[in-house]
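Still learning. Any example?
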Amino acid sequence: MLTEMNLIIESNFICHKLWLQAKTCKICSFEQFLKLRKKRLSATMIFLTDCSNWKFTDINEKTLTHMQEIGYLIEVISIVAHDTSKWKTQNEHNVYCYWLLLQNLDFNEGQKKEVFEKFLQEIKGIIQRKKQASTVFQQGNLSKEYIDLLQQVTGLLKEYYRFEEVEGLKEAVISPKF
């Protein structure tokens, strides 16, 4: 839990540094920024905190790995929903504005549906790559508990942020294909 907590705090500082670097050079990694930015809404920390009430014998390396992998995907969906529903200016340090910056697109371009769809396709690609590397998905399908959890979280995100596109991102996670 301490490692996760430190990552949450450190990620805010590193995101700011990456933002400044992106303004001066174009050799920047969108996935690196997303990986750090998503920690702002840390589902992984919530999972780890919740499991602190479990019996020590119920917690093993496989369970922790699964929580981290599912947490990662929920954090990606959450930060995309948060950042795209709340952005007002191109100077906001969020995933969509960062992506626009790396694409050499301005704020007005970012409001076009086709540009936003391209952004979502990149996010779905990141989700697919994470699934391919994940032990949770190696058996072929997610367990019912994980699917139920994703349904609940994405339902809340859709309602709270008025973010209809969350359904497509959820399907990218739940879909058994890679």
